[in-house]
Amino acid sequence: MHNGNCVSINLSSCIRLWRTPFRISTVFTIIFENQGRAKVLSDPYFLSLKERGYFMSNYHAVSHPSQPNYIALVSGSTNGCRSDFSIDIGANSIVDLLEAKGLTWKAYNEGFPGNCFTESYSDRYVRKHNPFMSFNNIRNDPKRCANIVSADELKVDEQTGTLPNYILFTPDMDNDGHDTGVPYSSAWLKEFLEPKLANPVYANTLFHITYDEDGYDTLTNNIYSLFLGKGILAKGVVDNTWYTHYSALATVEELFGLGSLGKGDATTRKIPLICNSTRPSFHSLYKLISDE
């Protein structure tokens, strides 16, 4: 245990993983819309995932409304974004860190028309949920912008075994629950996620299932967020440590050895759930536990 938080991690599990040829090769983030943690946990499927993953009960969005949270999750800052209107940002993101290390990325968006479509919406697709389109050094670079694709391309990448190292998957306005609610998004997620958890192509994938913000129904913007995947040390454990979207970004950065963007990701607490076969990925919480 650490500082009264409900975290109990078996370090020997990580040691066993180091001795096996295992490494997380892909981080796959799926973002849902506008619900507080308690309401999401009232759904049976979302509750069942809590028992199968590493659940962060004290995970928080960083702002309202939606768009600043998407931007924060990939860049360590809201970068001055305070609304859902289209914004052009002259800053770096996790894309810059990934590419500097020779790692690959894609943003899969349901309903995205393709061809670096920059308008604010198209049918059930909205730009405000597609954060990479806001960054000038992505939107204005045809090669980079080609990595922002329709969700339909995911099937092709699965079949060809060419999943990128970093995936940001954005359901449309129905499937993310924005216009429909938790039961609808839960049914969609079950149909979408379960085949992937059973598919060998995802064997080394860490899934991050999160909401962007609450529905203005909590005082602290407390949202549902969890990790699923083979590299998690402790499944079914509830971690009550305070985390934010910056924590998730910093954890991915450490997983891939990216360094940081020097913003909120540089000072936040990392999430202690990952170990690699090539090097111990012990975050500060691991070190405190192992010293006790």
TrEMBL record:
GO annotation terms (biological process): phospholipid catabolic process
GO MF terms held by the record: hydrolase activity, acting on ester bonds
Species of the source: Rhizoclosmatium globosum
Matches recorded under Pfam families: Phosphoesterase
Protein's UniProt keywords contain Hydrolase: yes
Keywords for the protein's UniProt record, in alphabetical order: Hydrolase
Organism domain of life: Eukaryota
InterPro entries: Alkaline_phosphatase_core_sf, Phosphoesterase
Protein name: Phosphoesterase-domain-containing protein
